Amino acid sequence: MTHNLQATTTLSNGVQMPWFGLGVFKVEEGSAVVESVKSAIRQGYRSIDTAAIYQNESGVGQGIREALAETGLNRKDLFVTSKVWNADLGYDATLAAYETSLNKLGLDYLDLYLIHWPVKVKYKEAWRALETLYTDGRVKAIGVSNFQIHHLEDVMKDAAIKPMVNQVEYHPYLAQQELLAFCKAQNIQMEAWSPLMQGQLLDNPVLQEIADKYGKSVAQVILRWDLQHGVVTIPKSTKEHRIIENAAVFDFELSAGDAARIDGLNRNQRVGPDPDNIDF
To answer: Which of 191, 186, 140, 185 is nearest to 165 (CA)?
Structure first.
């Protein structure tokens, strides 16, 4: 893995996706999200992840435009992701939802568009819509979020195009090793949301001991663990110093023993919903 913030993984269709990015879940629309996006791009981030349900796509788009003007970067230098929400999972509804997201973002295309949750029955029609968007050249890559192995198998059974990314809750208390192995075998890039378990891992004594050993923060150790497992990661922050700190994970490497100790913390514990019981 290249040791810098612009390092990319190659998706199954040849598209380059940054290993590291900014997530904006629960970042309030308006100045908060605008400034977070601008700060991240200023600091060298090239991937921004939002979703229709976050209700901050307009602010993300504004932040992107202002950051591009400020830095001299081009749109093609960035990797922008959004997701279709559960209420819009259907062929026509998903196509319309994509247009709505583009309009709010003020963009001509997305680099990655995901189905947000595997709502029963509905996600297969939504996947057909994503295939259409991809085939028509409207989006660079398509994928899913929160899909378990059986969901992926169900989609791929009838799909013309295999999902390129699966974004899931992933952190030391939810290591999802079987899912990660399956995605790697299928050449589906796994991506972590809530990599820091919404802050619940920061006081873990094992992680603190490892962090002290490397002269790093617990957050940096966790994010490095993600990367060493071949998992794209998108930590959220609205504070510039934290955005900088989170990205300072390319100048050290966890030993195999320390990575295994972190693996051993797994509890199959979620902070988000169970993907098999989606009722929203």
So the answer is: 191
Would residue 213 count as lying in a domain?
Answer: no
Q: How far apart are CA 228 and CA 214, in angstroms?
A: 15
Edge-to-edge strand ranges of the sheet holding 79-84: 22-23, 47-49, 79-84, 112-115, 142-145, 165-169, 189-193, 232-233
* CATH assignment of the domain containing 158: 3.20.20.100
- Which residues are part of a known binding site for substrate? 116
Number of domains in the chain: 1
Name the binding residues.
Answer: 116
Q: What is the pLDDT of residues 247-269, one digit of tens each?
A: 999 999 999 999 999 999 999 99
Which residues are the active-site residues? 54
> Range of 109's domain?
13-201+229-250
Q: Indicate yes or no: pTM above 0.90.
A: yes
Residue 104 resides in a domain: yes
